[in-house]
Amino acid sequence: MPRLFKTFLLCLALVPGLAAGQLPKEVLEGLRVAGVPLSNVAVVVQEAGSVRSSLTMNAHQPFNPASTMKLVTTYAALELLGPAYRWKTEAYLDGDNLVLKGYGDPKLNYESFWMLLRNLRGRGLREIRGDVILDRSYFAAVPDVSFDSEIYRPYNVPPDALLVNFKSLRFTFLPEEGGKVRLFVEPALPGLEVVNSLRLAEGPCPEGRAFRELMAATFESKPKPRASFTGLYPLQCGEKDFNVVLNTPEDYAAGMIRQLWAEMGGTWKGAVREGVVPPTARLVYTHESESLAETVRDINKFSNNVMARQLFLTLAAELVGTPAQAENATRAIRQWLTLKNIRAPELVLENGSGLSRNERISAASMAQILQAAWRSPVMPEFVASLPVVAADGTMKKRMRGERVAGSAHIKTGLLNEARAIGGYVLDRNGKRHVVVMIVNHPRAPETDAAMDALLGWVYNGPTSRGPSR
């Protein structure tokens, strides 16, 4: 064993409240390479249905769980609302005006909004002579404050009772012969200016911020929406999509309606404005979303923050009252946990998505919630919503070729200083285990190897060692 690693283990053993020997050596090595001390790590491993842990560390300390907080929100929703719950969006006519009232549908996307308008055309509405009034009163107003500096990224979109297509523009890039890159945007809203002078280049295709910087992508929302791409586009990227938010909710809805309504042969020359459904209005159509069970799959598989926040406020509206407020969702979830004999005194909920610097939970409480979900009537829907290791969602590219591939359902979480996993592992002996690991540290994003090592260790069949201190 290298002298440096021995020194690392000795130092860990001297930290009060820790039991370095409890962690598998592969996990310890991953943490050592990442430069993360055990005081910043929480772990719980339990066989499903058991109250005894095979591995624990710092289990009762509050940590920021990042997007694994979605496990709490989605499980609560499945039990409190039911897997068959559906959101509705209502369309009214009031004189010459069309009124749209939202109830928080997390996935009123391009296709769903097209279907809503198509049904209005099918009911004989061809000309909208007045204005389109948007009724968002089901949710209380949420400040449009970005979580970080990425103000044009869709994950920063605040909740909205009438959220149309996440307010998102999808830019699609297609390499062509002659060193050019074709670019188109969906929806192609009126007034959007797009500058494309991209040039094809050699080299690997970067991800995230590096991809945007290579393309020299810049965005403006005022005085009018504008997107500019003037850099390089690696040929290895092939066809690639990039989503951006540039429009206000009113302008986005107006642009969507003008585009789609005209394509359907309808006419409209009015404006979009805020309001509520007048008592004189007549309901002409109610659009229903896909089921909650299907929605939860999108939330957990792809860690969709906007949809999770919509669901969080839906709990507030349905269980406490309207207009929905985050503190009421927190109260509803706390009451639900109390009824399930889960205390979780350290739990802090802000928006239920994990896209928060304030949310907190302990690994022990998260494990209790996962154990309760395993015993729940909604267990099949809940477990099926989690990413499958090496197969789909946020775990698609991790642990490919490893023995645990396909045998674990794991939700991931990632913030600048938080990394987490939570879910279930079916070991090689056919036993299922609850697994939670949370790291809070500036180098937390570098601990994937340690977390993968834990999943591999659990798959190989952890022996019962008793809880650590």
3D architecture notes:
The chain is α/β, with parallel strands linked by helices. The protein has three domains: 3-83 and 294-459, Beta-lactamase (3-Layer(aba) Sandwich); 88-164 and 248-290, D-tyrosyl-trna(Tyr) Deacylase, Chain: A (3-Layer(bba) Sandwich), CATH 3.50.80.20; 169-244, no CATH class. The chain is built from twelve helices and 22 strands. Helix 3 packs across helix 8 and helix 8 (305-319) packs across helix 9. It starts with a helix and ends in a 10-residue tail after the last helix. Residues 4-21 and 464-469 have low confidence and may be disordered.
Summarize, please:
The chain is built from twelve helices and 22 strands.
Keywords:
disordered C terminus; 469 residues; alpha/beta; D-tyrosyl-trna(Tyr) Deacylase, Chain: A; Beta-lactamase
Report the uncertain regions.
4-21, 464-469
Helix content: 25-40%
What distance lies between the first and last C-alpha atoms, to the nearest angstrom? Answer: 26 Å
CATH superfamily of the largest domain: DD-peptidase/beta-lactamase superfamily
Largest pleated sheet: 5 strands, antiparallel
Structural class comes to alpha/beta
CATH fold-level name of the largest domain: Beta-lactamase
Helical run tally: 12
Number of domains: 3
How big is the Rg?
Answer: 24 Å
Question: What does the overall shape look like?
Answer: globular
The beta-strand count equals 22
Strand content: 15-25%
Widest sheet: strand order? 2-1-22-21-20
Query: Mean pLDDT, as a whole number?
Result: 93
CATH class type of the largest domain: Alpha Beta
In CATH, the architecture of the largest domain is: 3-Layer(aba) Sandwich
